[in-house]
Amino acid sequence: MSGLKTTSQTDLARLRATGDFAWDGTDEDDRPLSLEEMQAGIDANRKKRGRPVGALKESTTIRFDRDVLEMFRASGPGWQTRMNAALRDWLKSHSPTRGS
Question: What is the pTM of this model?
Fold first, then answer.
C-alpha cells in the first residue's frame, strides 16, 4: 500500500495519551472558544442561510415549451434571472390580461 498514509497504533496511543487540549494562556490565537463564542458563531452562520429577509420573489410551478427552456438554459448560470427579466421587459409593452 505504497503512497497511502495510515495511522499507526503508536500514533493513536500517543493521541489518546495527550488527553484534552490545555491552553497555556500565552497566545490568545490558540485559546479555545468558549461555549458562548461557539454558539454565537453557529447562530451567525445560520442567519446567512436561506432566502434574504424581505425577498419579493415567489416560488411557483409553470410549464414552458422545451425549446424556450433549452435556449435560456443554454445561456448558462443565471438563466432564470434572465428569463424573469425577459418577462418583465415584455410586460412593459403588453398587457398580461386576455385579449391583448
Answer: 0.46
Q: Where are the alpha helices (DSSP H) in 1-100?
A: 9-18, 35-48, 66-74, 79-93
| Residue 79 belongs to domain spanning | 65-94
Q: Please provide the distance, in angstroms rounded to a whole number, between the alpha carbons at the two ends of the chain.
A: 73
Residue 52 is given by DSSP the state P
- Write the burial class of residue 92 (CB in 10 Å: 0-12 exposed, 13-18 middle, 19+ buried): exposed
Q: What is the pLDDT of residues 46-75, one digit of tens each?
A: 877 777 777 788 889 999 999 999 999 999
- Residue 99 belongs to some domain of the structure: no
Number of domain units in the chain: 1
Q: CB under 8 Å to 41, separation ≥6 — which residues?
A: 33
What amino acid is encoded at 81 in this protein? T
| 56: in domain | no
